[in-house]
Design brief:
It is a single chain. The longest helix has 37 residues, at 236-272. It is globular and about 80 Å long. The chain has three domains: 10-118, Acyl-CoA dehydrogenase/oxidase, N-terminal domain (Butyryl-Coa Dehydrogenase, subunit A, domain 1, Orthogonal Bundle); 123-236, Butyryl-CoA Dehydrogenase, subunit A, domain 2 (Beta Barrel); 242-382, Butyryl-CoA Dehydrogenase, subunit A, domain 3. The chain contains twelve helices and ten strands. The protein is 49% helix and 15% strand. By secondary structure, the chain is an alpha+beta fold. The chain binds flavin-adenine dinucleotide (FAD).
């Protein structure tokens, strides 16, 4: 067992870790490998996680969830990744939840949350990125035009993950004018896509380097009731920024899980694999990259804990959320590199899973926010240097 787990004295979390591990045992690496090969969605795994109540951990008990903290959610995702799985199949439900809970109307919460908690309704799609606006969110073009008590949606999103496996979508759209590049021109909508699929909503899957169920979505004259608006019109950008702290912390936790996975695998393999009549792990050239990745991961883990503590106490945590995402993504990549090198040629064999996890963990230096954008945040917002854009 990986040392970090033993070092964690908080038994409260051990219970969750053990619970997730026992679920994950039913979904071994072979399961994920085959899904990856066939670009299939892990339906059974998501069902098991839903039935166990873990997926509804951020839904308050009064709405049928388990009402746990963000720290608990982080541990759930970290543990999934540590066992070789991938929480990306269903993590969006956790981080979208914040916007719905904080800014959604009572009608939206009462209508949707109990159904999401039981798994009867899926909220897994978050539509922000567009072909001409990724990092520059304020320039999105998808429009939501108010007409009486309705909004008319037109436009295109790209990279919207899991849209084919989600009933609802949280959509960021422009309610202000086309030219206006102000945060007050964007609004957030919670839309039940089911009646519109194949009509005013066309979802096209994108084949990518990893099994992430990414899609592009076309909205063509989609008419929705004004009750789909989350919170107030023109506040959508603020709402998603709010939710992004949770997203960054949870994805940091997934990266941490990946780092632990790679380190664990590399250590085991380096102790077992004999070359020149001795374990390769006896060579410092093999040991040191793994030891360095371990040091990075331990430090990054502290930042995740700090960010979760601040978030759960409703304190400001933008800096810590960004730092934890940056450090964990770097730690997971460093650990991935160390594992790749340790496994040598076998790292390239699908059977050993290293190449799959290597591809998967690379995503997190680009999405949901790139390393550069976190560095700009630290430079501008934390250190007070001039804005670069
Ligand atoms: C597998 C996958 C799943 C995704 N899932 C979703 C999803 O579910 N929903 C969703 O809305 N989006 C999703 N995304 C989109 C993701 O959030 C974007 O790819 C990401 O925000 C970067 O946007 P972009 O790809 O348009 O890059 P661009 O904005 O074109 O940037 C390209 C590069 O330039 C750098 N750059 C740009 N501007 C600056 C600057 N001022 N200073 C320094 N560097 C800069 C960036 O850091 C980046 O490395 C997903 C992406 C992928 C690949």
């Amino acid at each position: 067992m990986y040392k970090m787990l033993k070092d964690n004295k908080n038994t409260e979390w051990l219970e969750i870790r053990n619970g997730i591990q026992s679920i994950c045992k039913e979904y071994p690496e072979k399961y994920w490998r085959e899904l990856d090969r066939n670009r299939k969605y892990p339906e059974d795994f998501v069902k098991a996680l839903t039935n166990s109540g873990y997926l509804a951990c951020l839904i308050p008990e009064k709405f049928g969830g388990t009402g746990l903290s963000l720290r608990a959610a982080a541990i759930i995702l970290e543990e999934i990744h540590k066992t070789g799985g991938n929480g990306a199949a269903c993590h969006a439900q956790m981080y979208i939840m914040g916007s719905l809970l904080k800014h959604g109307t009572d009608l939206q919460k009462n209508k949707y949350l109990p159904l999401i908690a039981t798994g009867k309704l899926r909220l897994q799609a978050f539509g922000v990125t567009e072909p001409t606006s990724g990092t520059d969110t304020l320039s999105i073009k998808t429009s939501a035009k108010k007409e009486g008590d309705k909004y008319l949606i037109n436009g295109q999103k790209v990279w919207t993950s899991r849209a084919e496996y989600s009933d609802l979508i949280m959509l960021l759209a422009r309610t202000g004018s086309k030219e206006e590049k102000s945060k007050n021109s964007l609004s957030l909508f919670l839309i039940d896509m089911r009646p519109h699929i194949g009509k005013q909503i066309i979802i096209k899957p994108l084949r990518t380097m990893i099994n992430h169920s990414s899609t592009e979505i076309f909205f063509d004259g989609l008419e929705i009731n004004e009750s789909c608006l989350v919170g107030e019109e023109g506040k959508g950008f603020d709402y998603i920024l709010d939710g992004m702290n949770a997203e960054r912390i949870l994805i940091a936790a997934e990266c941490l899980g990946d780092a632990k996975y790679f380190i664990d695998k590399a250590v085991k393999y380096s102790n077992e694999r004999e070359v020149f009549g001795r374990p390769i792990g006896q060579n410092q050239g093999v040991q040191f990259p793994i030891a360095q990745a371990y040091a990075k991961a331990r430090a990054a883990e502290l930042m995740v804990i700090e960010a979760c503590n601040l978030f759960d106490k409703e304190n400001k945590c933008g800096t810590e959320a960004n730092l934890s995402k940056l450090l964990c993504a770097e730690a997971s990549w460093q650990a991935a590199e160390a594992a790749m090198q340790t496994f040598g040629g076998f790292a390239f064999s699908e059977e050993y899973n290293i190449e799959r996890k290597f591809r998967e963990t690379r995503l997190y230096q680009i999405a949901p926010v790139s390393t550069n954008m976190i560095l700009t945040y630290i430079s501008h917002k934390v250190l007070g240097m001039p804005r670069s854009y």
